[in-house]
Each structure stands twice: as structure tokens, then as C-alpha cells.
Amino acid sequence: MARIEISELSKDFGSIMALDGVTLSLDKGCIVGLLGPNGSGKTTLIKILNGLLVPTSGTVEINGIEPGVETKKKVAYLPDRNALPDYMTSDQLVELYSDFFYDFDAAKAEAMIDDLGIDRNQVMQKMSKGTKEKLQLCLVMARQADVYLLDEPIGGVDPATRDYILKTIISNYNEDGIVIISTHLISDIESVLDNVIFLKEGRVVLEGAADDIREKEGKSIDELFREVFRC
């Protein structure tokens, strides 16, 4: 059963405090919006959960284990930029993921790639930005992971691609898992969110079930976001 526990988590980069005393509990079967403007600490939190950064203080546990080699086996990560070799084709990347992740479903990945009409023999270098984004997402969502960490999965792509990406996330994630979507494009993803976390200057300023927040505040998550983060 997927579970994330974060307690008094802080991370600084010298004089810059990226995260400041973050405490959160997340359980299985939910899609979580990690929401905040650029520089709010979203990517830092995702990288700590993925074991790419070490906290300055506080604790993080995924299924009772600190992020590291063991958690990488059950955490699927989509970075905010292309992290795959540009010289590889879709088929070669499917083989790569099959070698690295025991929970990777190659047939599922291939079906999504074919559904998108991506040329299996074309190297990533020759693909458009939107096609690269979709291919990376197919690879990530073809894992039967406990936790999916998606950093800006809809940033910089056209509306039709955004719709496909959201459909892919909803249709393919492990329902006993947790999906965390980091973004500042709230209106595009609000309809799929079960829970939301507002990060501002490294602190959690609002957190809870999306429906409860909408009912309590009498406005959409997007409207509330614009209010909280008004310049």
C-alpha cells in the first residue's frame, strides 16, 4: 500500500531556503496537485522524494523507507526536462526501461506509443518537443509503481497534447498508488485532482481534498490559486 510521510522537511541551498518545515501525509489511490509558482519548491520536493536531493533537515519516508535504492524500485519519475538519450529510438527506450525496472510493462508502453502514432524507429533528437513529452510519459506510466512523480508534465505543450497527457495519467496509473503532479497550470488539471498542496516560498500554505477545499472556499482551485499567489 502506497504511503508518503513527510515531517518538518527543510532544504536550503546556501542562503536560499527551498523548502521550510514541510509536513505532509499522502495515502494510496489519489492524484495530488503540487501547486505553486516557479521557485516555490515543487521541483526540490519531487527530487527529494525521488532520492536525487538530500534534505537539510526533517524526514521523508515512502512506504516506511527513506528515499534511496529501494524506493527507486517503486517510484516512477518524470523530470521537467528530457532526461533520455537523444540518440535512442522509442523501441530502444522500451528495451532500456525493461532492463531497468521490473515493474515496467513493455506491451503497455508500446500500445501507448502506437496510439500516439510515434515512429518506433525515429530517434528522440528528431522528435518535436510535444512528442518527446508524450513518449517520456508513456514510459513512466507503463510502470506499475507505488508513486508517480510528474514534474510539469503539461508545461510547454499544446492543449490537445495536454488532454492526451491527462487522459494517459488517469487511464494508466496504479490505482493503489499515489500520483503527484507538479504544475502552475491549474485550470488544465483541476478536474483530475483528488488532493491539492499549495507551496509558497517553500512552505505549505494550503493542503487537503480538492472537493473539500472548493466547498469550504466557494471557488475553484484555480480561482483560489490566483488569489493566494496574486502578485
The tally of domains stands at: 1
Mean pLDDT: 91
Q: Alpha-carbon distance between the termini?
A: 40 Å
CATH architecture: 3-Layer(aba) Sandwich
**In CATH terms, what is the fold-level topology?**
Rossmann fold
Percent of sequence in beta strands = 25-35%
Major beta sheet summary: 6 strands, mixed
Helical residue percent? 25-40%
Q: Outline the low-pLDDT stretches.
A: none
What is the overall shape?
A: globular
Side-by-side strand order of the widest sheet: 5-6-7-3-8-9
How many beta strands in the DSSP annotation?
9
Rounded radius of gyration (Å): 17 Å
Number of helices: 9
Structural class determined from secondary elements: alpha/beta
Order of helices and strands: EEEHEHEHHHEHEHEEHH
Spell out the CATH superfamily.
P-loop containing nucleotide triphosphate hydrolases
Q: What is the CATH class designation?
A: Alpha Beta
Describe this structure in words.
With 231 residues, this protein is α/β, with parallel strands linked by helices. The protein has a single domain, classed as Rossmann fold, CATH 3.40.50.300. 35% of the residues lie in helices and 27% in strands. The protein contains nine helices and nine strands. It has a six-stranded mixed β-sheet with strand order 5-6-7-3-8-9, with helices on both faces. Strands 2-1-4 form a three-stranded antiparallel β-sheet, with helices on one face. A hairpin with a 2-residue loop joins strand 1 and strand 2. Helix 3 (90-100) runs antiparallel to helix 4, helix 4 (106-115) runs antiparallel to helix 5 and helix 5 (129-141) packs parallel to helix 6 (159-172).
